[in-house]
Amino acid sequence: MLCLWILLGLVSCDKSVSETVIEPYAPAKVDEAAGSWKTFIVTNPTEVVVPALNSDAAYKKEVDSLKAIEITASQKAAVLYWGAGSVLRWNEIARELAARYNIPPAANAAGIYPVPDASNPLADPKFPFANPPYTARALAYLSVAQYDALVSAWKYKYQYNRPAPSVLDASIKPLLPVSTLPAYPSEDAVVAQASYVILLAMFPGEGPFLSAKLAEAKSVPIWAKTNVNSDVTAGANLGAAVAAKVIARAKTDGMSAANNQAIVPDLILHAKSLGFTTVWASQELPARPPMLPNYGAVKTWNFDRATLESIRPAIPYLPGSEAFNKDLAELQTINKSQTREQAAIANYWADGPGSYTPPGHWHRYACEAGIDAKYSEVRMARMLAYVGTALMDAGVACWETKYFYYSPRPQQFGLKTSVGLPNFPSYTSGHSTFSFAAATVLAALFPDRANTFMANAQQASDSRVYGLIHFRVDCTMGGKHGKAIGAFAVQKANADGAN
Amino acid sequence: MKKLFTFLFCLLGFVELKAQMPHDGIYMNKKLACGALIYGNSSWTNYWENGLKRDNPNIGRLTTQSVTAMIAYGIKRDLNVIAMIPYVKTDASQGNLMSQQGLQDAAVFIKAKSKTYDGITAHGVVGFSVPVTNYVPDFMPMSIGLGAKTLIVRGMLSYALPKNIYLNSSIAYQVRSQVKADRDAYLAGSKLYQTDMVAVPDAFDAALRLGYLKKDNQLELFAEHFSCIKGDDIRRNDMPFLTNDMTMTSVGIYGKFQPKSVGVNARLAYVVDGQNVGQSTTVSIGLLYLFKVK
To the nearest whole angstrom, how far is the Cα of B102 from the nearest Cα of chain A? Predict the structure, then answer.
């Protein structure tokens, strides 16, 4: 019997998985001057008007009304959850949605893969298929909208200088740390409403889910007694107006033509004209059309089209050449004797179907670094905007490269994979481009951790060789490309007035 | 799907197919041992993606082969210990997913029985299994196992009927540990978990067996049901995962022929219904050797 209890203890210790809890914190710096930081879409921070304050008497009445508020345990849990950071939480929500929607459509009975339909998002296949390019783009627009809206919010905060309720009336005991940041408009409401608008546009089937998150996020500043209703209303209106401007760019950035399959025959002819005798072919059964063959034409953030073409990685060796055979031999060795460590690295970075994709992985790393540095909301959004736009630029430029060369995957030369094979051309590696672009931005913003970020990017890049779905050259050239792409974001960040 | 195999083989299958299995009513006499070497082959082409039965041309037929070394030993005539360890290999006949292989989970069972009243005997079995190699648990359906430590507690009643016929019913609860996955985030249900620890749901199984047993020879028909107590479903066109709520009902036939110290056994099982599992057909054949321990 004793034996039995020991055994029970061994297996039944804790059935619920515990995740890292992020505690609410007061920012290390409130970034008073953020209202003058350079934005991405909004041309000046007062482009959207936030109405002047009510009378002091009216505000005092609003503050007094907070005193009667008593909250339930679940409302308190919501306060602690959102108190860790609005930008952080909406980024996490976006990553969760990306993971839920990141599944390639199934073929129908006729062997055809139906295209997800934005006007019927919950049908099978669901819209969107949140693959890495889609997710990179969704997160970029989310972060840009949050950032532009917060810069504007900061401008008004210091223009109107409304003290927080607990500053005005010391008998108010807020449930979250309060800094010297003026209260009007509520930054949490700004972020909530802007995020809601962007995410609903990106995940149109998630209206009820997002509405519930929005309602909770906008209630939290009241429950926590850190804002009054007029702060929240003004913040939500500002967030919505800025997000509408950001969405206007998204509607015209070329994404609607990204899955234009009509261009594929010409892409193949072009690759053959470059000397590729074997070009990429889908290895799925039935053959699946290539993922987003025209995503390379989508508008970039931090450099123009001429630059995109000028930094495109050079043509790789051609199948059958000596250099090609050397890289193929490396893969053949791994195919025969993959080590457990190689498998673990390949799996860790796989970020395949059902995950938040490599752009999501890097947004997570970025959020964790921002939390560790106790960033203010506006600085967190700024950091994510540069990381996010660099990731989207990496996606666009990498996809442009992939379809420019249309090069074959290792599986067309008899190799298996331990991670699953993406359905698009090989050269260059998306993981390598995404990872080095993001790591370059993060290394510039967090110089103390530069080595770690670059080492992570290198491991993400190597993981695609270990997982047997990329040739070495795909990864080394993709990595270089990613660094150059990240450098454009860094250049822009260095000139935005925040440093 | 591999889970399916793993479970089927390790938790249910192996148990069934031995001479003295953790869940049969047969015992080794004191100081008598039975060693066995069993080859198993389980495969499917169709599986249940949540409740949708489908095939997958990018997998084709998924085959899990195993070789299991097992020993049962009589501590007393009503108290036996059984230990086993399988080597498992998976292969997909189509697509490009890499085959996986290795030693899987070692298991030890202790089995005891009551006195017999009116032909009814009660049995209790406690077993524990633990992965013996660091195989990849979250590359399903190619992984060779789930990677979880498992505690199995089984209650069993056997009824001796006339003419060497017996009826055996059993029910077991399986407590399963969390698993450390290679990835650091995963979806379970609609929630994104940002950790590498994955909770594999507990499970139960129940079985009914009707057989003929004379001396050491045996022929048996059985029906088994396996079900997780909770878990999520495979999303549309997604891969299976450790958190899935796997359910399956199988039927089969088992036989053992042991004229002397050397014997053979064979087992055939077929999954008739399920959810989040492959519809597998499992065949195994074992070589048995009885010997006295001094």
Answer: 11
Within a 10 A sphere around the Cβ of A47, how many other Cβ atoms?
14
Kindly report which listed range (A40-44, A237-241, A366-370, B18-22) carries the lowest average pLDDT score.
B18-22
- Using a CB-CB cut-off of 8 Å, the residues of chain B touching A418 are 97-98, 136, 139
| Letter string b/e over residues A429-456, b meaning 16 or more CB atoms within 10 A of that residue's CB | bbbbbbbbbbbbbbbbbbeebeeebbeb
Q: Which residues of A touch B138 (CB under 8 A)?
A: 347
Q: Which residues make Cβ contacts (< 8 Å) with residue A347, sequence separation at least 6?
A: A418, A419, A467, B136, B138, B139, B181, B182, B183
Q: Are A91 and A384 in contact (CB under 8 A)?
A: yes
Comparing A388-402, A433-447, B5-19, B139-153, which segment has the lowest mean pLDDT?
B5-19
Chosen for mutation from A6, A10, A16, A17 (greatest number of chain B CBs closer than 10 Å) is A17
Q: How far is CA A491 from CA A382, A397, A495, B109, in A?
A: 14, 18, 7, 65
Size of interface A-B (CB pairs under 8 A): 132
Q: b or e along B48-64 (b: 16 or more beta carbons within 10 Å of the residue's beta carbon)?
A: bbeeeeeebebbbebbb
Distance from CA of B123 to the nearest CA of A (A): 15
Smallest CA–CA distance, residue B268 to chain A, in Å, is 31
Which domains does chain B possess?
9-292 (2.40.128.130)
ipTM, two decimals, is 0.94
CA atoms within 13 A on the CB side of B178: 14
